[in-house]
Design the sequence.
């Protein structure tokens, strides 16, 4: 089970008054975190296995993939909260600022799809 909560945010663009908005923070369960981490690390592990029979590069490339899979597993496992949803209006062009699902790290930096300017989203 994941639990969703609305977080009030402030969206600021270069040289414009910040506008307020809301993002959806999704707290993911340990089971979901494990599945996500295994899926992400599994791709790299499979690539490592696939490169094992290749002469010469089998001496180093599979081990790099295996090491990378451990690092990716640890990084994805640590992500307890994701953020997604429509944050609000762009302070420059008033277009809706939509976030793709991503790990929650403040501040969130994104680009407006309407005007292309960079926006910074902070908790209000
Ligand atoms: Zn814009």
Sequence:
């Amino acid at each position: 089970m994941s639990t969703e909560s609305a977080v009030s945010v402030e969206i600021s663009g270069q040289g414009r008054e910040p506008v307020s908005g809301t993002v959806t923070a999704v707290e993911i369960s340990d089971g979901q975190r494990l599945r996500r981490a295994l899926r992400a690390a599994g791709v790299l592990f499979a690539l490592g296995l696939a490169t094992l029979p290749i002469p010469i590069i089998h001496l180093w490339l599979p081990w790099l993939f295996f090491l990378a899979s451990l690092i990716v597993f640890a990084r994805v496992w640590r992500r307890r909260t994701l953020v997604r949803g429509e944050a609000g209006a762009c302070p420059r062009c008033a277009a809706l600022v939509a976030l793709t699902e991503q790990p929650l790290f403040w501040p969130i930096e994104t680009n407006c799809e309407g005007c292309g300017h960079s926006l910074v989203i902070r908790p209000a």
